[in-house]
Input
Amino acid sequence: MGLIGCGAIGSVVARELAKGAIDGVALTSVLDPAVRHPLGVDDRDALLSRSDVVVEAAGHGALRDHGAAVRESGADLLVVSIGALADQGLEAELRQAQGGRLYLCTGAIGGFDILRAAMLLGPLETVSITSTKPAAALSRPWMDEEVREALASGSDPIMVFDGAARQACARFPESANVTATLSLATVGFDRVRVQMVGDPAATRVRHAVRASGTAGNYELSFENAASPDNPRTSAVTAYSVLRALADVRRPSVSFL
Ligand SMILES: NC(=O)c1ccc[n+]([C@@H]2O[C@H](COP(=O)([O-])OP(=O)(O)OC[C@H]3O[C@@H](n4cnc5c(N)ncnc54)[C@H](O)[C@@H]3O)[C@@H](O)[C@H]2O)c1
Output
């Protein structure tokens, strides 16, 4: 298995695989110019020559640079930076690349199985997600100074975004991946409503998903601890990658 990006998520995946966490999956190559790794650090050609499945855990730019080439090499691609697919050109390029399979990691949330089943019964009329994060994690240079000040030193929760998932992914590229996954699994980037709330009192990230349609009403909630290495990433995301690798590679029972 090859790994593009060995930061907060990738380093945990690498460490757990080295401990034998997932039967039948071993790390064979790492591509990340910013880190050192006992396997050494490969360029793309070396990574592709050593990998039957490649995990992208690096960011939008890396997915743009390498995603299609991974599939075209015949290797399967497991994408973690799902928010990058809000770019319609990149989504089309990745979907159309011929070769290995394209897997989208469910990442820091879940429940897409029931929502997709509901959509087979009848349309979902509304799908929304409210993400509440520690205030400092949502501050961005493009925000008004007043909003940044409130996020830095205010005491009340403040809503910093209310709009479509496609725009949320563009405005918060490192913090809107779950909205992208929800969009791709359900009604698309332009119909999923996203609210982002910065809460000075929050120490964990909360996601509240609501969907309703012919099949029924669904409310899913998640509260994730942050990665010790990256406050914008939920610690469970790396384990979601490991779970995905297990489901793809291990010949056992799958939760389908
Ligand atoms: N799907 C989800 O639910 C979810 C959840 C959290 C984070 N993410 C996304 O996963 C990705 C990784 O998150 P992280 O917390 O590990 O980030 P991180 O910043 O801790 O690590 C990213 C690593 O990728 C490397 N990198 C950057 N560009 C690269 C390139 N072009 N080629 C090779 N390596 C490159 C960096 O050097 C760094 O070591 C981010 O895009 C993040 O937004 C997704």
